[in-house]
Amino acid sequence: MEWFQVRDESAIPSPSLFLHLERVERNLRRMVTIAGDPSRLWPHVKTHKLGPLVRMQVDLGISSFKCATVAEAEMLAGVEGVQGILVALQPVGPQQTRILELAKAHPRIRFSVILDNASTAQALARSAKEAGFGTPARPPLGAFIDLDVGQGRTGIAADASAEALALLIVESGSLGLVGLHAYDGHLGISDPAERTLACDRAFEPVAALRSRLESSLARPIEVIAGGSPTFGVHARRQRVSLSPGTTVFWDAGYATKLPDLPFEPAVVLLTRVVSKPASNRLCLDLGHKAVASEMPQPRVLFLDLNPVTFVSHSEEHLVVESPAAENLSVGNTLHALPWHVCPTVALHSEILVVRESVASTSWSVTARARRLRF
Questions:
Q1: CATH code for 21-251?
Q2: Residue 135 per-residue DSSP state
């Protein structure tokens, strides 16, 4: 059998998502090896949203995690051994109250948020004060200053405005300045040397800002930097924590674009031929609702159908053409790697866990929900 095939597939509905556990385990070990110490890792759970996988990471010595939603933070808080959670999407509106309530419910965990402007920080500080943060009974809510290092999505420049925001957080009393957050997701450059050079240049103002803050505050300032493409670059720096996400599953996009990185795809889509309009044309049950579709084709990389021309894609159907279609019939199964695994996982309520080619159990993708309890 090929590594991506599963025994008794005829009994498994499609479209389904397979998690090949041996590959995940190897990816996790590689993450720890690159980091050098599991305490440096703050893996982003938005890729998988799975409590059992967090458990696997904790068993490797990882105790701090990054997430994007309150539901993901709640999922993390339910795993024994998780000690630190950073919600890396600036909380506004009701999200502030939800995070504060969650932090109050789990006092053993160090909760932090990212902030990039004074008005949001002031609003959160007021709410945190009303909730009792920054008192002898409850420490301040942690805060990282979100820095824009070139992506232009969120964050503040690493200049005097960031220093002013840091002072505001320190003086609030109900918020505690933990450090700096610098995500450089725009640096998915294929050439490793060019990627390293761009990453180093983007990080220079971050390092300078930390130096100034440590001098003025007379204490250490943490830095959490990078994502999956620049994971190895930041790992070579001193006193920098690392937050790769996709490395746990990898996907066709990163495998194609970043062949120098030592991770292997671990999540596979099972699909079936539901119609055959022509001898070289197949209609598959792999629509928008089964695989991430925010990018142009290819949205999947077929492991057992090549070459492929993508004809159309809709809610429930993917139509492709291939000379190999002549050997396939309605009902036959095919296997594909998602081009972007993170939003693909979020489309599935469960993921089938495969070990030694047997899908013996399934895990609920708990944190795909927008709300659990809080």
A1: 3.20.20.10
A2: B
Kindly indicate whether the domain formed by 9-16+263-368 is annotated with CATH number 3.20.20.120: no
- From first CA to last CA, the distance across the chain in angstroms is 45
CA 254, distance to chain mean position in Å, is 13
pLDDT confidence of residue 168: 98
pLDDT digits (tens, 9 = 90+) for 217-249: 999 999 999 999 999 999 999 999 999 999 999
> What are the structural domain ranges in the chain?
9-16+263-368, 21-251
The Cα-based distances of 203 to 97, 147, 169, 233 in angstroms read: 33, 10, 23, 10
Enter the DSSP assignment of 326: G
Q: Which residues of 193-219 are buried (b: 16+ CB within 10 A; e: fewer)?
A: eebbebbeebbebbbebbebbeeeeee
What DSSP designation does 44 have? B
Alpha helices in 7-60 (DSSP H): 21-35, 51-59
How much helix, strand and coil, in percent to the nearest 5, is found in the chain?
A: 35, 25, 40
- For residue 188, CA distances in Å to 219, 297, 333 come to 33, 18, 33
Residues 6 or more apart whose CB falls under 8 angstroms from that of 114 comprise 86, 87, 88, 89, 90, 143, 144, 145, 146, 154, 181
Classify the C-alpha dihedral 242-245-246-249 as positive or negative: positive
For residue range 304-335, what is the model confidence (pLDDT) as tens digits? 999 999 999 999 999 999 999 999 999 999 99
Beta strands in the chain (DSSP E): 16-20, 64-67, 84-87, 110-115, 141-148, 175-183, 222-225, 241-242, 267-278, 281-284, 300-302, 309-313, 318-321, 333-338, 350-355, 358-364
